[in-house]
Amino acid sequence: xLSKKELLDLQFIDARARLIDLAAFLDRxxxxxxxxxxxxxxxxxxxPILLENRPxxxxxxxxxxxxxxxxxxxxxxxxxxxxxxxx
Amino acid sequence: xxxxxPHAHMVSRTTDDYERLAIAGCEALCEPAFWAGFDRSSADxxxxxxRQLTEYEPKRAARYGIKHFCWLCINPKExxxxxxxxxxxxxxxxxxxxxxxxxxxxxxxxxxxHSELKIFEEHVQIALDYDLPILIHTPHLxxxxxxxxxxxxxxxxxxxxxxSKVIIDHVEEHTVAHVLDAGYxxxxxxxxxxxxxxxxxxDILEVYGSENIWMNSACDWGVSDPMAVxxxxxxxxxxxxxxxxxxxxxxxxxxxxxxxxPRFRL
Lengths: 87, 266
Known about the structure:
The structure holds 2 protein chains of 2 kinds.
Chain A: H1 4-31, H2 38-46, H3 57-64
Chain B: E1 3-5, H1 15-24, E2 26-32, H2 43-62, E3 67-72, H3 82-89, H4 92-95, E4 101-108, H5 114-130, E5 134-137, H6 144-155, E6 166-168, H7 176-181, E7 185-189, H8 198-208, E8 213-216, H9 228-238, H10 243-258
Parallel strand pairs in B: 1-2, 2-3, 3-4, 4-5, 5-6, 6-7, 7-8
Helix pairs in contact in B: 2-3, 3-5, 8-9
């Protein structure tokens, strides 16, 4: 396993770029016209998880974007997925 | 390095991809039956697809020294019409004995519907009847956690099922423990946008261990990378994982699981 410093040396620049990209994505959304969208709400609700002191942030973010109902659907409304339980 | 690509939809890829895989060290690859990106209009479309998987692709792979194996089923995306699905499933006995067929897959759920689950369970019974391994697809994105739980609940009702002969694919951080803790194998799919990135897959190995788990590219007609497994192996090397560890998850583990099919030979 790498040390913390070795991991930072290897991945900090890439992680920094991804974080700036997320910030720019939110800026971009605000510049564009349109109404509320549940995907934006889920996205913003997931962001505070990144600052929580826990070892499983990725799991928690995935759970935030998951359908937590238990019932089977009668039919498939469409074949794909939107990334958040909006339908 | 030598490695096994345990999940690739080569019918959607070019011959150039076979060459790249061979250069990267791919010794064998396995092609589950899946959606073509559009719905087939008749069971005849699947008949031709099964011929492609069992006759044409093995020859195309062999030109580059790669052994080609496949899995048969009607995929969950086209399983919401049970009548149509059963027409396709009726074709399976004609192909199940062919020399590169490993088992039943990739079955599973897509939008977590009643019909999908019914057809999934009928596929599991076919695998049990033929005593063959099972490869299971879990749903995409927001549907994955629910679908994984539904699949695990369903499998638990098959008292004669040997869980070591079942791999549940496309696990991520929120589903991997559910799968491994229940005694099944887990597959991690390396995708640029959805599913796991190489670094996340390596995190999962570091947190959950390297037993009963493999990684694959699941390259198909969508956003995917046939070179994802060797790229992840390189990332493991950069993160100072040992050559033995890299070999275990990219070669030994797939070989161990797949060898449960009598047709898998390296």
